[in-house]
Amino acid sequence: MQSEFNLIKEYFTRPSKNADLGVGDDAALVSASPGHQLAISTDMSVAGTHFFNDFPPYFIGWKSLAVNISDMAAMGASPKWATLAIAIPDTDKAWLSEFSRGFFACADAFNVSLIGGDTTRGPLNISVQIMGEVPNGQALRRDGAKSGDEIWVSGSLGGAALAVHKIQKNTLDAKKPSDQSLVEKLQHPQPRINLGLALRGIAHSAIDLSDGLIADLGHILESSQLGATIDWSKIPHFDSAPENLSVETIQTFALTGGDDYELCFTAPSNRHSDIINIGKSLDIPLSQVGTIKANEGLIVLDDKNNPISIKGTGYDHFK
Ligand code: ADP
Ligand code: MG
């Protein structure tokens, strides 16, 4: 059996570019850039809740960091440092080395240094804290939406939720390219950091889509004390062609499905063409899906302008 200290050394210690002192002392030391605020967030990943137990450990490592980096994207912050508190049931070398490989692949992709953490024995539980920087006063917050803002989303919605559904129903075909891309969406989320950075000074508010558009846009509306109208026909949803799904089911996945880690943001209509240009230069699909309204409440309209009623409002651990 490996000691806790050897384990930390072997799997969780890498040179940390962004830190003055990294893993190995009682605390890490970092220097914040002048004129910046620190953006700090924590997300926990629990086996059985956030990933299936047979999820490849590489992707558990990638995703446990990626979902945290996505919170930096939503704030318009540059991610820089992370800590990792992990409980593992045993010291399974193959598992740990794959987990660590996926975690550091994500860290390298987004220039994040792992600067500390805690390692204990227990049911698998992974808690990551991410820290990033944003120039003073420029963070994209949930409470900044204005009446008349256009509502935008990046990428496409509902694919990760459909992947979960197919895994649970045992109908996922690992050889089918359309199913492979659904699993990729679920296991290998790509946080929209470059988009968050480009939206500083343009977007009035932003959030990342972890619990579904209706729930997450709902947080913007609540914080900003406003309402919204969404046009279903403008929602960029997953490719439903290979699936045999009713419109209601497609709507449920696209509007209430979690785990997409796209951004939803609001911006004044006079920035519409700037946003189109950002999408082109970053090669990220951006869709304007609705408008912020002064009256509270969220209405989704079908293509005949009739309100759609949606079952469920998104993922909530305590419902
Ligand atoms: P202490 O007893 O002072 O809390 P630990 O023995 O828990 O120290 O950790 C030793 C060092 O290893 C610390 O710098 C801590 O931040 C780091 N560390 C522990 N676990 C991890 C981990 N999973 N990932 C990264 N660093 C870790
Ligand atoms: Mg400790």
Q: Which shape, going by the Cα principal axes?
A: globular
Neighbour order of strands in the largest sheet: 6-8-5-9-7-10
Report the β-strand fraction as a percent range.
Answer: 15-25%
Structural class: alpha+beta
Please characterize this protein's 3D structure.
The protein has 319 residues and is an alpha+beta fold. 33% of the residues lie in helices and 23% in strands. The protein has nine helices and ten strands. Strands 6-8-5-9-7-10 form a six-stranded mixed sheet, sandwiched between helices. A four-stranded mixed sheet has the order 1-4-2-3. Helix 3 links the parallel strand 2 and strand 3. Helix 2 runs parallel beside helix 3. The longest helix has 19 residues. It starts with a helix and ends in an 18-residue tail after the last strand. The relative contact order is 0.16.
Brief write-up:
The protein is α+β, with helices and mostly antiparallel strands.
Write the layout of secondary structure elements.
Layout: H1 4-12, E1 36-46, H2 57-75, E2 78-88, H3 93-109, E3 113-121, E4 125-135, E5 150-154, H4 159-169, H5 177-187, H6 193-198, E6 205-208, H7 213-224, E7 227-231, H8 247-256, E8 263-267, H9 272-282, E9 286-293, E10 297-301
Helix pairs in contact: 2-3, 4-5
